[in-house]
Specification:
binds inosine 5'-triphosphate, 6 helices, alpha+beta, Maf protein, 7 strands
Length: 195
């Protein structure tokens, strides 16, 4: 029912993702309910496969409709690393370790990819993708956002995502794009709880 208010459960352990989803989805009249039950995460080459699998398993396990989002940082000169290993790389290498891997490399081009997967207990997952291209800076700057934001400078920006407000980040980010695609479908579809 277009124009009506809906809500969606977002299964994630990352509070930053919840904040960003609220910023992007509230103008569509979609309220975000954090849900602590993401379940299994497979290792796969694409964020879409990971998100689709997690959403399907979690929706069946918890018997509820929900979204899951998987994201990763893909660095060209490292052949796409950390990509699907972004979460693990952030926890182990950290920002400093990632910058060391780029010492002496000429190209610092990179992109963030996001996949938002929606699934209900009886259905198959629907996946919405987003991408932002940019560069890895030589040193971190800014304290906003999370993860690798302080070293990622989106194309056309002079500031890192860590220096952008969350609203500015969401206008250009991979997650913002994927969530807006999800919202366009969700507001028009018959699915989702009205409140
Ligand atoms: P959930 O799986 O519980 O949702 P997570 O933080 O583990 O939370 P991902 O596996 O999707 O989420 O994210 C992989 C990592 O990629 C994440 O931990 C960050 O280090 C990095 N990352 C993803 N999106 C990012 C963003 O918008 N800004 C900065 N770093 C990001």
């Amino acid at each position: 029912m277009p124009g009506s208010s809906k809500q969606v459960a977002f299964a994630t352990s990352n509070k930053g993702k919840i904040e960003e989803a609220r910023i992007v989805l509230s103008p569509f009249g979609i309220a975000v309910r954090p849900f602590n039950g993401k379940g299994l995460e497979i290792q796969a080459e694409t964020v879409s496969e990971v998100a689709a699998f997690s959403a399907k398993v979690a929706s069946r396990t918890y018997r509820r409709a929900l979204i899951v989002e998987d994201a990763g940082l893909f660095i060209e000169s490292l052949h796409g690393f950390p990509g699907p290993f972004s979460s693990y790389s952030y926890k182990t290498l950290g920002i400093g370790g990632l910058l060391s891997l780029l010492d002496g490399t000429r190209s610092r081009r990179a992109s963030f990819k996001s996949a938002v997967a929606y699934c209900d207990p009886a259905g198959e997952p629907r996946v919405f993708e987003g991408l932002v291209t940019g560069m890895i800076s030589r040193s971190p700057s800014g304290a906003n956002g999370f993860g690798f934001d302080p070293v990622f400078v989106p194309s056309g920006s002079r500031r890192s995502m860590g220096q952008l407000t969350l609203e500015e980040k969401c206008e250009v980010s991979h997650r913002g794009e994927a969530l807006r695609k999800f919202a366009a479908w969700y507001t028009e579809s018959n699915t989702g709880q009205l409140f």
